[in-house]
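Continuing from the previous page of notes. For each protein in this section, the sequence appears first, followed by its structure tokens. Read the first protein now.
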Amino acid sequence: MGISFTVLSSGSTGNVTVVRNEETTLMIDAGLSAKRIDELLKERDVTGEEIDGILVTHEHSDHIKGLGAVARKYDLPIYANEKTWEAMEKSIGKIAEENRVVMDSGEVRDFGSLRVESFGISHDAAEPVAYCFYDGNEKLSVATDLGYMSDKVKQSLSDSNVMVLEANHDIELLRMGRYPWNIKRRILGDMGHLSNIAAGEALSELLTGDLKRTYLAHLSRDHNMMDLAKMTVRDSMEERGCFYKDSEFKLCDTYYDRPTPWDKVSEP
């Protein structure tokens, strides 16, 4: 079976992704209400009882809104590093001690035949992380809420077959937008969010024969659009001499209000 995944929701209103192989089904973040997460799981023919655990990237509400409720409803273990646990405990309510699992930043953990690697990223949270998933020769990487793409993060993402990567905002739309300047400065800073241009710059370095497609994620509803994000990412890549055909590499959509289709990492 290999690795399959669906991005149930992506954006500032809530983030949830499900990754599975033949033995294990994991959820990354639970940034919507438990009711909404159940609805989206149902749309992809998954039940809460099938989930084996929840991996947390960081403590911001658009990533943990339904975390406590979902974990309690289905008696699920939650995996997060110690600083993230400290930052989110008051927000998620009481969690059974056996379901409170510390997974350190940089740790590699096996869930049956599905291997998960956590790695640190730059964002204005306690100790934010992203994740890579491995099954045999397959590699899926999920990385959003990136202030900037460090060499260490690029190394973690290298050799991915499929990526879910942040393309949060168009820089000019953000600068002209309605947000106060202090919030704009935060988003544009090294501990904020990755712009369309920055996503393209990173992909121009990460695009190898192994990388088949990238889902652009965590788009701002105020300062971005999917068509604009795709166009800017393509232009940014081409400006750096990175030319490709859709048959060789694809940019794919994510949505804030509906899930992506199941994608098998092994598919061309």
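Done with the first. The second protein uses the same format. Note its length before scrolling.
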Amino acid sequence: MLLADLTWPDLDPAVAYTLLVPVGSTEQHGPHLPLGTDTAVASAVAAALHDADPALVLAPALPYGAAGEHEGFPGTVSIGEDALRTVLVEYGRSACRWASRLVLLNGHGGNVAALRSAVTLLRHEGRDAGWLSCVADVPGVPLDAHAGRYETSLLAHLHPGLVRTDRAEAGDTRPLREVIGELRAGGIAAVSPNGVLGDPAGASAGEGARLLAAITATASAAVTAWDPDPGTGRLRPPPA
């Protein structure tokens, strides 16, 4: 069920609904990917979960997040960690008046601290909330940090017309752990002038389809298991 298309009588108070909410960001993704990349990925994963189980209620995406590290590039709009946390807490408090469970599907790494804090509070208040990130390990595909092959493949599959392949170029390819200090001090622009952390070379729509399937399978297993980490509220997948 698509929340935005329903009327209030369509929701039966006797039914235990699970509400899926994609949480994204509006931020630079190098010269070749759209600003809405993270929102698009989170929305696609949520839509795939909904397609597999139409009893789930799919909410419109939240397209803004904590993306201050990208503000050195035009187009980025960040609401910051504190504001995002407040939005998520109030969203959860309101939605859980009728939804039995709340699943926040995150597409942007910078949102994690706010998600942890917000969901931990919601759970402390007695609301059955959980969150998970839209990532998965796929053999042969490097999990680079930002706008590299991983995200470029996903967007080539999801929205090929929005990928400017003629502009695709490598950025800083060092592991994130080696640049995190510089990144925190000066943002992405201080590390990578083109905004890319990784290399989009080798990306393909076929690879993106494999990635989306893996991410969706991981997310589906975690939602089905419903085992939120007691310290963070992150939904944990079942043991392998």
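What the second structure shows: Helices lie at 37-52, 80-95, 112-124, 149-158, 176-186, 188-191, 205-225. The mean pLDDT is 95. We return to this in next week's lecture.
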